[in-house]
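Please, structure for the following, as tokens.
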Amino acid sequence: MEEILIELHLCKKIHTSEGDEILDVKIEIPRLGFITLFGKSGVGKTTLLRMIAGLTQPDSGYIKVGTEVWFDHARKINIKPQCRNIGFVFQDYSLFPNMTVKEHLLYASQDKETRYISELLDVFHLKGLCNRKPGRLSGGQQQRLAVARALARKPRILLLDEPLSALDSETRQTLQHEIMLAHRNFQATTLLVSHDLNEVVKLSDFVYVIDGGKVQSQGKPVEIFRNSTIGTDLQLVGIVIKIEDNVLTVSINNTITKIVTTPDKLKDLNINDRILITAKTMDPLIRKLTENEAY
């Protein structure tokens, strides 16, 4: 039987696009597991991470980590964020503009262990960028730094809030691999927020699907998405580059695609919007490409 590291049952009133809703979530996370909270935007996934981190206070419930109680509303226990052994990677990276790459890691490190910091720089391919500040880093390099900084304090729990959502497909795939290596090498229990199916299946041991304020399903990624309506659609993320009449021109992984649609689906779209394109996967046309074909 797996050793459970985190047990929690939390309730919090949240504001969604459909009005106020009560987020009421009960989950268990095994030690050294890679767990994903999956669901559409606005269902409370980030709020749940922030409650675990101590950045948002639940309305009721409890958080137990190992033998420690981090939060218990009934017993009036609420451990300060700095006393919770976590690393948190935010969507916007939250890097310090006046610090170099190495200074970020030294600042986050509690014991200033240079060998460990050097290992982080190696794993995330940052060693040659030690003296650069965030303004001189690419988006992928900034994200590498954000994850490395979160791991610099040797956290027991690593919280990742859609850390790769703003990156291009190639950089995203590379960083997914690096995050998995870091998860294994640095012995952190990892909790990821994502609504990217490929990312969830590639990285996760276990998934909690959240909707309507509740955990609607849970299990191994392949089982969850094979047996639910979530997995019956093909989902692609693209960038709108042109809107003309009823034709939408979209860049999907640097491939230009034209989509004919209806005016009502175009009325709220603008150039450079990121969009999710969903298509039914029942009996799709599939053809293997030859080595000489462009794609």
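Residues 169-185 form the longest helix (17 residues). The longest strand covers residues 4-16.
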